[in-house]
């Protein structure tokens, strides 16, 4: 599941840090990883460690397990986050706040998911 | 209407349509259902299987064109294509078939589909085998974003937060669609539901409740595309393709990274299709709009220009989408109630409406119909169909 393109992301995830791609030619920051920079088409990148600061863009609360591996975690919140550096991440949100709202500040880290894979974990800032 | 080099305006006709029963637990394989629907569509047109010289199969489990050569004994298949747009593949296949017919590559192009969900064709499993969902599988599935309901729910939630759209407005779509399924007859779910039934159905992926979600069901649907000139000599009243276009949303393979979560691919396709047709939303008599989830209908209505972005909730209120309303929509019961046939059932129903053979669900005197597709996280297509003359 991991390939060269996303090695930087997964290495960072295991350290608990969100790692994005930054184009060394034009500076454009991107996620999810792509071979070419969509802004300038350069293929040279460097890893960029995100600050971990972001805001809520949207969310959903899962009440049905489409995979038995997640049945014990219901209900859980998946939050789409605008990361300070530009791209977004989809993260689990804990604890579930009663009144989630757009633009609410969050911090982003990682925690082991159902299969042991590190999963982005957001907390209200 | 002047015809420029890329226009397919009135250059193709849907000459035959066919469907199997829609049900759960079919004993027939997906291929058997595809072949049954195909034979029905071919004979509906007044053609024989040997007349087919083009095939564009629809669906990830769609059999390749070679199966039609083998089962129909075709000796000269001149055109085939693969359309990788999920639920927009029916419109994509119609576009490809129309282009092939217009170019003179083929005379009669078959577009078949069929599925049997008990044989592993469930969406939550299927999508992770597809290259279009590679990013979701690698980056989002570990967090628990597995099925389309969970991937699309943030689009609906954002719309609700920005524009005040409500779950009761989603319910309007579920209720009228179910009512139409009962009138159509060939549908998996025909028992009438109310807005309160919708509101008390269990949450699947908030804001989507069970009655916001389409069915997993078995069946087959197919149509045949020929030139308008050939259509005049065939068995059915011709239905002309007035305009058609496909569009991809920004960030097509990741909704998370999409700049505007409230827009899908049909926003790019619609102006092209309307322009090609020389028609617009006000001209539409009946609309068959891809409805994997209630919200997806509302979003497409906005993106096609039936109302402004953010006004979809108010637009669907008051029975506008019901038979007898201003914009009868999904008169067959759609994916929400008739069956999940990848939007192929929407195209079949649009054709029946324009022929005047839609039974109890007929919109009187329908002259202009649309069918839309939505798939693989937002690929979109719009086909504008009109009643042709002999
Ligand atoms: Zn660049």
Verbal overview:
The complex is a heterodimer of chains A (125) and B (390). Chain A has a single domain (7-124), classed as Beta Barrel (OB fold (Dihydrolipoamide Acetyltransferase, E2P)), CATH 2.40.50. The longest helix of chain A is centred in the N-terminal third of the chain and has 9 residues, at 7-15. The mean pLDDT of chain A is 94. Chain A has one helix at 7-15; strands spanning 19-23, 29-30, 45-49, 53-62, 76-83, 88-93, 105-112, 118-124. In chain A, the strands form two sheets. Chain A has a five-stranded mixed beta barrel with strand order 4-5-6-8-7. Chain A is 7% helix and 41% strand. Chain A starts with 6 loop residues before the first helix and ends with a strand. Chain A is built from one helix and eight strands. With 125 residues, chain A is mostly beta strands. In chain B, the strands form two sheets. A nine-stranded mixed beta sheet of chain B has the order 3-2-4-7-1-8-11-10-9, sandwiched between helices. A two-stranded antiparallel ribbon of chain B has the order 5-6. Chain B is globular, with a radius of gyration of 19 Å. Chain B contains 14 helices and eleven strands. Helices cover 35% and strands 16% of the residues of chain B. Chain B has a single domain (13-119, 214-387), classed as 3-Layer(aba) Sandwich (Peroxisomal Thiolase, Chain A, domain 1), CATH 3.40.47. The longest helix of chain B is centred in the middle third of the chain and has 18 residues, at 167-184. In chain B, a hairpin with a 3-residue loop joins β10 and β11 (379-387). Chain B has helices spanning 30-44, 65-72, 89-102, 123-126, 134-140, 148-163, 167-184, 195-200, 228-231, 266-277, 294-303, 312-315, 334-338, 344-355; strands at residues 13-19, 54-55, 79-80, 108-115, 203-206, 208-209, 219-226, 239-247, 286-288, 368-375, 379-387. Residues 1-5 of chain B have low confidence and may be disordered. Chain B is α/β, with parallel strands linked by helices. Chains A and B meet through β4, β5, β6 and β8 of A and α5, α6 and β5 of B. Bound molecules: zinc ion. Zinc ion binds next to loops of chain A.
């Amino acid at each position: 599941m991991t390939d060269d393109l996303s090695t930087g992301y997964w290495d960072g995830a295991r350290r608990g840090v969100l790692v994005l791609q930054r184009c060394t030619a034009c500076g454009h920051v991107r996620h999810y990883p792509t071979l070419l920079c969509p802004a300038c088409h350069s293929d040279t990148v460097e890893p960029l460690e995100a600050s971990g600061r972001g805001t809520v863009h949207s969310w959903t609360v899962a009440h049905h397990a489409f995979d038995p591996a997640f049945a014990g975690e219901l209900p859980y919140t998946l939050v789409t986050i605008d990361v300070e550096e530009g791209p977004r991440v989809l993260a689990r949100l804990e604890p579930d706040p009663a009144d989630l709202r757009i633009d609410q500040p969050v911090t982003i880290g990682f925690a082991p998911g159902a299969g042991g894979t590190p999963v982005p974990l957001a907390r209200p800032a | 209407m002047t015809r420029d080099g890329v226009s397919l305006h009135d250059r193709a006709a849907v000459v035959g349509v066919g469907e199997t029963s829609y049900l759960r637990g079919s004993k027939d394989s997906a291929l058997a259902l595809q072949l049954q629907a195909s034979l029905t569509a071919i004979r509906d047109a007044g053609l024989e299987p040997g007349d087919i010289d083009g095939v564009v199969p629809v669906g990830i489990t769609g059999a390749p064109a070679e199966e039609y050569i083998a089962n129909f004994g075709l000796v000269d298949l001149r055109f085939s294509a693969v359309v990788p747009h999920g639920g927009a593949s029916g419109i994509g296949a119609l576009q490809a078939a129309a282009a092939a017919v217009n170019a003179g590559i083929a005379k009669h192009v078959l577009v078949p589909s069929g599925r049997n969900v008990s044989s592993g064709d469930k969406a939550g499993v299927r999508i992770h085998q597809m290259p279009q969902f590679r990013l979701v599988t690698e980056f989002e599935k570990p967090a628990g974003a597995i099925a389309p309901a969970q991937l699309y729910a943030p689009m609906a939630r954002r719309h609700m937060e920005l524009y005040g759209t409500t779950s009761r407005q989603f319910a309007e779509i579920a209720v009228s669609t179910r009512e139409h399924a009962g009138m159509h007859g060939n549908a998996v779910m025909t028992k009438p539901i109310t807005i309160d039934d919708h509101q008390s159905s269990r949450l699947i992926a908030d804001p989507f409740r069970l009655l916001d979600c389409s069915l997993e069901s078995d069946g087959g649907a197919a149509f045949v595309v020929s030139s308008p000139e050939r259509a005049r000599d065939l068995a059915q009243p011709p239905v002309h393709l007035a305009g058609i276009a496909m569009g991809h949303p920004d960030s097509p393979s990741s909704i998370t990274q999409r700049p505007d979560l409230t827009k899908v691919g049909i926003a790019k396709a619609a102006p092209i299709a309307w322009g090609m047709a020389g028609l617009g939303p006000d001209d539409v008599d009946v609309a068959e709009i891809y409805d994997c989830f209630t919200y997806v209908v509302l979003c497409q209505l906005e993106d096609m220009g039936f109302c402004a972005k953010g006004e979809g909730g108010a637009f669907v209120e008051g029975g506008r989408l019901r038979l007898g309303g201003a914009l009868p929509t999904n008169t067959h019961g759609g994916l929400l109630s008739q069956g999940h046939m990848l939007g192929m059932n929407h195209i079949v129903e649009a054709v029946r409406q324009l022929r005047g053979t839609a039974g109890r669900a007929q919109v009187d005197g329908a002259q202009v119909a649309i069918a839309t597709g939505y798939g693989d996280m937002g690929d979109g297509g719009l086909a504008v169909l009109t009643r042709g003359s002999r």
